[in-house]
Structures are given as structure tokens and as C-alpha cells.
Amino acid sequence: MQDVPARAAKPTAKPIAPVSADKSLPLRINGKAYFFDGDGDIPLLWYLRDVLRLTGTKFGCGIGVCGACTVLIDGKGQRACLTPAKAAANRDVTTIEGLAGAELHPLQQAWIEEDVAQCGYCQAGQIMAAADLLKRNPNPNDDDIGKISNLCRCGTYPRIRRAIKRAAEIARANAKK
Amino acid sequence: MTRVRSNRNDPDLARRKFLFVGAAASGALLVGWRVGRAQASALPYLGARFDAQPLGAFIRIEKNGDVIIGARGCEIGQGVKTSLPMLIAEELDVDWSHVRVEQLPYGYVDTDQGPSNKYGSQGAGGSDNIPSAWKDLRQAGATARWLLLVAASAQWNIPAGQLHTEAGNVIAPDGSRLSYGALVATAAALDPPKEPVALKKPEDFKIVGKPTRTVDAREIVTGQATFGIDAYFADALFAVIARCPYLDGSIDKLDDADARKVPGVKDVIRLAGPKPEEAFDGVLANGVVVLATSTWAALKGRESLKIEWKPGPWANESSVTLAARAAELLKSDDAGVGVRGDGDLPKARKQAKKTVAARYTMPFLAHATMEPPNALISVEKDKVVLIASLQSPSGASQIINRITGVARDKIEIRLVRAGGGFGRRLKNDFVAEAATIGKAAGKPVKLIWAREDDIQHDFYRPFGVHDMLATLDRKNEITGWSQRCAATPRNYRDAGMKDEPIWTGCLVPDDFPANLIANLQKSFYTVDSGMPRGWWRGPVHTFGAFAVESFIDEIAHEIKQDPLALRLKLLGEARELPYKDYGGPVFDTGRMAGVLKAAAFKIGWEHRREGDRGLGIAGHFTFGGYAAHAFEVSAIDGNVVIHRAVCAIDVGRVVNPLGVEAQAMGATIDGISTALNLAVTLKDGKVQQSNFSDYPLLHMGRAPIEVEVVIMPSDKEPSGAGEMGIPSAAPALTNAVFAATAYRIRELPIGDQLRRIL
């Protein structure tokens, strides 16, 4: 039987070997060092996706409105589509792939428990925006959460709200351990 | 999606399928379908529907007990990658937590009876996945279970009738157990049953009806899930296209010298769209393609193109002229194209004590899937591989075949999660573009659409105006009803609709209040337009329900009746009315009344709201499912604030309550988002909007904090759930706005209408 349930196509990750070169751009992404010798004006979004094949960061609008490309730069939520790669040089970039430590981040855990995702496309950006929020405000209320401006075409907002509150609880419980 | 034959209740469907059994090299048990004859599809745009197939496998049970279930559908956020395998797992009788779900590719096969599909129906449209799978996929699971029972019977020498199964084990009368894994070698050598085996009784369901989370949840939240746009071939060139902004316009002058100088740009080629009289079943528009070594280089190259576009035959078309034309048509004495005519409306008008009339206007809408269209393709002489987010893989396969000449059984289509669908991906124009470019470039191509491309080059939900009229007698009974719709027909340059009437996709003859009012007319007037049109989420139903459900509300206020009570009175006693359109064959007035009452109860309809708050209600029947919305709103400084949002939904037997709740919640917010702000407009033959800045989807801060979803318990055959929750959202919202402000919204979107008035 040749034909059995096939695995979904995975992007072939091309690990980029860190090569130090004088002119190249030093980047720290998810704790790993990279040196990029291409055009430093490339939006971080396309560097992450096309060069590093970190495809969890999504392209949605290219003008910083939808937030599907949200990443953390030095812990702060930023739109990767509007951030030139050179602006991230020597700063810590965290993408959805680097959010979890040994265990899932409380937001990821809560997102699964609240079954937030429908199509799932915007959710990495939503989680990164929520990570930014929880960092600034570990106990956000509905108004605080409502200031997240990331767009979701499927309309998952009520579950996003629940998941952020649940994540805040998980984080508080973890802190007590 | 409209007047097409529904085979939902075809009892022979399952019986025409024959399952095959086989063993994999690992010794695993495989269960799938053998080929059968193709049948006409209820949804032509999804391609023909096929009977059982020779090679496909839905179920694989390894010797170590691992259970792998294939998911055949296009996952666009509607949850079929979870819910369809649940149906198989239920009948197989395995522990869901031990099931691994894997996406199946497109299952095209050639047979001696013509093209077929080894997995059955794989497209996503018309909320048809669950109704289809309810008929056929359960049998796959039940057959595998039967084989395992027979295998255990032989091993123990105990009649199969004395054995039962539980969570992946066969259990003997004395309590001894054999795991499925231990039985696969024997089961794989058995002949499949000659007759369909009995399915479980609903009271024995352990998986169906239980809240079940999305199978890909972990991959999604860790950034590992693969959408079409996330697929790469190492040697692919990246392509973006500058498409002509004018409807049916063309390239007048092209200077690509600067673009070719952009580092990374490899080539610039012209791409031909259809001629103005040709159907849209390939490339959508004339354009210029930039091929480069990265998305960024391709985008920069495109910015450096100097193109002078030549406006096409629609250069004078604008939203203003379209609205004027609709008004002119509706003012004329022309009777239009008759869609439905019951009784004697002129007589009812003559005898009427009172008439009520109102006009409602619906805008063009874009789909704006969060993942813009894209496609990754490798075109070789006798082989094509496509990875793309799709809703109609059969359509993609046909288009690739036509463009490349490669035989369909040599076209491999890998299905991946799609970042939303909403009907956009029922069209495969982006696949046609990628195939054309891939063939010309002689290299694999990764085609990306920017958001501007998506908003400006879509197949839009039609624009239209509904003129509604009702006649009432001296007891305020509604004696006559007229709906005259002047619209840009959905049926436009669509090869798949050439045998359909012009009004298909704009009006539904059997929709409420058909069969409930003696003298009833529906007629259609064509507003010519060059805008490409397509299906949307609950397309014809969002288009019509706003007019009907707003108008009922207006009549109720006019005759000083409660809007809910008037609806319930019209629906009358619970009974099944004929419904020949897609979603039928019946419309159950009791189920419609049921969701209305449930929504009303949940929001506290009988408690009159104080001050500036108002309640609104509406309901609609969509593709076999029933939904009603009730909203509590206020409008402070002209801004609509939704204090509570309730959606009651009846989709028959619920397969995954967590999924149905998600769909009802999401569709409600989609409906609110669209009603508040979304419209595509035209000026000088060009779309005016270009991105989320001017096609502003609702963000979280303006969406209701909760959508209170009420799922009606039901043992009826399941319908889908993806589209039912949207059509009644807009009229319930504007009915609530009227209750709060006494201002009637008759044109969508609401936009700044309240700010201008209040």
C-alpha cells in the first residue's frame, strides 16, 4: 500500500551556520546568534521567514496593522513587517518558536486549554502580543486586553481573552511554586 | 450553493461504497475505499463528488497499537481536521487521546469510469464537510472495527456477536482482552464485509458530542503548524505580481529596467488575464510578474516597475453609478426576472389596509483571509507538485492540468492548513498564476500575494439593493410580500454557473417567509458590473437575511407588535416546509422558532431595557442549520457598543460542541465586523480599498467581550456549522440599534451613519 495518511508538508528548515564577518549583521534570535550578510533593510519578517525559515511569524498586511508578524524585541512587542533587520541588530528577538522554555509558555498552555485557534494563522502574533501585555501587566483586565490590536479574521477574540486570563493565573501559580 | 440538487439525505450513498482492507509494509492494518462511480455533486464548484476509491486509506493501525486517522478535508479554520477524524474514531471505538491525525493529500485517481477521488469529497464549501462525512466516513471506522472483531473471533474461536470493543481493545465475555494492535495482522488478511456494517447507536457515542480541542493546537501555538505560505522548495523563485488595478484593464506601457536592477530580481514577465467576455477560471487579471530570489527582492522589484495601465470597458464604473443604476431599475415598471411568485400580490396590494416598504443596500465585500492567497508549485514535463492553502483541490487540479498539460494523476497536491477560507479559495486563480509562471520560469515558484493584491483583486460578495414591500389587512396580518432585488449578479463569468439562473447567489426562492405568506413575489434585476464576484461566508444568506430580518422588524414596529412575537406568529406551528434550494429538502419552522426563542430567553427579551440600551433579534436558516442572534446595544456618540451578544444555533446532532461554539462565536463576530465597517467600493473602474487600514476588520477592543452561544440539543442529521452563525448577526445588530436609538440602518456597513445622525 503506497498510499497511507501522509504527513503534512513541513518547510525544510535550513539551519544557517553562524559565520562571523565584519560587514554582516549580528542578530540574536531565540537565543541563537546569526550573522546576516544580505540587505539590512529587509524587514525582519522576511528575514525570519525566507532566510531562517522560522515561519511561525506570519505575513498579514505588511503595514503594521494586523499584528500577525508580532515578535518580541528586547521583550517588547514589535511588528516584524515594519522592523528592518538592521534595527534588530544586537538585540534579543524572540519569535513564537522561541517562546517556550523546557515547558510551554503559560500563554501557549492556556491557548491550547481554551481551544483558541480556528484557522490559527494569526495566533502566533496574538500570543506574542499577549506576552508583551503580560510582561507589562501580569493581571490585565478586559480593558487592558482589549487594547491588543492584532486582528483575527475568524473572530476568536472571546477565547483569546479567556486564554490571556488563564495564562495570567498559570503564571501566578508557577511563581508561587 | 443555491439551486443545486442536495444529496444530503441519499440513503444509498453509504451502500454504494465498498471498503478495502490491506496491510502496509510494517504489517499495519489499512482501511480505505474502493472505487465506485462518480456522481453529480451538490456543490458544482467543489468538483464532482465521487464514490468509493481504490487506494485511499483513512485508517492505519500499527502492530504496536498506534492509530493513525487520515483527515481528508481542507482545514480552513472550520475544524474539519478534528471533527472528521472524530467520526471515524467513534466507529472504530478507540481512545481519542491515542489517535494521531494526519492530513491526507488530494486523492485524485483515474479509473476506467473516469476521474475519481479515493477520499471522497475533499473541498470546503457550503458547510458540507460534516453532512458528507456523516454518511461515508463513519462506515470506514465501523468496518475497521468489524474486521478487528472478526479477527478476535477467529483467534479465540468465539462468535463475533459475543465480543465487544472498548477503547482500542476487543473484549471477550470472560473479560479477556486483545488490543487492536495484536489483531492487525489477522485483520489485514480478511476480506472486507460484503454489506455495510451497523453503525453505533447515538447513545453509545463516546467521542461524537464531546468537546474536543483542535488537533493541531500545539503546533499552532508553537509556530510549527504549516500553512500554505510556510511551504518552501529549496530552489524556488519568489514571485509577486503587479495586477492591473482597472477592471478588465490592460498594460499600456511597461518599463522594467529599474526592476531588473534590483538585487535578487531574476526576471520580469507579462501575465495575461481573461478577455472581458471570458470566464474567470484561470488567471484573474493582466499583470506583470517579478521573479526573484526572495519575497523581499520580488516586492522591491515590483515597486520599481514603471507601468502605465490602460483602463478597460468599466473605466466609468463607480459605486455611485452602480447604486444609481439599481435605483433606476427598481423604479422602472419592468417586472424583472421572476424568481418566485405565489398567489396574487397585485390583488393583495389592492385590498391592503396598509403597506410597508423599505429599501436595503448591501456592499461588495472582500474575503480578506488572514493568510493571503499564495501557492508553491513545481512544474516539470510530466509532474507537478502544488502546496497551497485551498478550498477546492479538484478545481486546482483541473486548472493545473489545463495550463501545464500534465495529466491529472501526475499532479500532486499536498493539503495544508489554510489561514482562513470564507469562500475565497473556492477560486483557484492564484494556482493558475503560479502554474503559468512556473511553466514559463522552468523553475519551482513560490507566489505571494501582498494584502493590497488581495483586497484589490478578489471575487467579491455582490453589491445589491433589496426593495421590500409588505401588505397588511385590517387585522394587521401580513397578506402580501415582495422582494425585488437589483444586484450585480453572483452568476457572472463563472463557467460552473452557466446553467444557473441569473439570480443564483443573490436570492433563494424558498427562504423565509416563503410558504408562510399567501401572496409572495421575488424578482431580480441585473446591475451590470465588471467586478469579479464569488462566494463568501454564507454568501447568499448574508446578502438576503439583512433585508428580510430588518424588514420583519420594521413591520413589527409599524404595527406595534413585538418583533419576536411577529416572527413566531409567521412561523406558526412546528412543521416541515419544502426547501428545494441547497440546505433542504425541508425548512423546519419549529427549529427556526426554537433558536429564536432560545436566543430571546438567553438575553432576557421580555425585560425591557432602560435608558439608551436596546435589544434586537433576528434569525435565519442557512445550509441546513438554524441560527438566531440577540444583541443588547447602546450607541453613545454614534458608536455602537455591544453589551451582550447571544447566538443560538441548531445544527442537528453536534459532533464537536467546542467546534460548534467556536464557529458560532467566530461567525457572530465576523457578522458584527462586517456590518460595522466593511465595504469594498469602486471609483473610475478601480477598487478603492487596499489594506486593513481601509478595510478595517474589527479588533478585540470593539468586539463583544463574550458571545453567549446556545447550542440546541438535537438528534437530527448534522448540518455543518461554519456559516450558520453569520447571516442573522447584522440584522440583529441593526434591529438592536433601532431599539436603542430609533434610527433604522438600511444600508451596510453602519460606518459613520450614526455619528452623522445622532
Features:
heterodimer; A: 177 residues; alpha+beta; five-stranded mixed beta sheet; 5 helices; 5 strands; globular; B: 758 residues; seven-stranded mixed beta sheet; 34 strands
How does this model look, in words?
By secondary structure, chain A is of the alpha+beta class. Helix content of chain A is 31%, strand content 12%. Chain A has helices at residues 44-51, 106-113, 123-136, 142-146, 157-176; strands at 25-29, 32-36, 70-73, 76-79, 92-94. Chain A has a five-stranded mixed β-sheet with strand order 2-1-5-3-4, with helices on one face. In chain A, helix 2 (106-113) crosses helix 5. In chain B, 27% of the residues lie in helices and 25% in strands. In chain B, strand 10 and strand 11 (169-171) form a beta hairpin. In chain B, helix 12 (539-558) crosses helix 13 (563-571). The radius of gyration of chain B is 27 Å and the shape is globular. The model of chain B is unreliable at 1-18 and 35-56 (pLDDT under 50). Chains A and B meet through helix 1, helix 2, helix 3, helix 4 and helix 5 of A and strand 6, helix 4 and helix 15 of B.
Q: Biggest sheet of chain B, open or closed, and with what strands and sense?
A: 7 strands, mixed
The total strand number of chain A stands at 5
By DSSP, the count of extended strands of chain B is 34
The number of helical segments of chain A is: 5
Strand and helix map with partners:
The complex is a heterodimer of chains A (177) and B (758).
Chain A: E1 25-29, E2 32-36, H1 44-51, E3 70-73, E4 76-79, E5 92-94, H2 106-113, H3 123-136, H4 142-146, H5 157-176
Parallel strand pairs in A: 1-5
Antiparallel strand pairs in A: 1-2, 3-4, 3-5
Helix pairs in contact in A: 2-5
Chain B: E1 19-23, E2 29-33, E3 38-39, E4 49-50, E5 59-61, E6 67-71, H1 80-92, E7 99-103, E8 108-111, E9 114-117, H2 129-156, E10 164-166, E11 169-171, E12 177-179, H3 180-188, H4 217-221, E13 237-243, E14 250-255, H5 257-261, E15 265-271, E16 287-292, H6 295-303, E17 306-310, H7 319-331, E18 337-342, H8 345-351, E19 354-362, E20 374-380, E21 383-388, H9 393-404, E22 411-415, H10 429-441, E23 445-448, H11 451-456, E24 464-472, E25 478-487, E26 519-526, H12 539-558, H13 563-571, E27 576-578, E28 586-588, H14 589-603, E29 613-622, E30 625-636, E31 639-650, H15 657-677, E32 682-683, E33 686-687, E34 708-711, H16 729-741, H17 753-757
Helix pairs in contact in B: 1-2, 2-3, 9-10, 12-13, 12-16, 13-14, 15-16
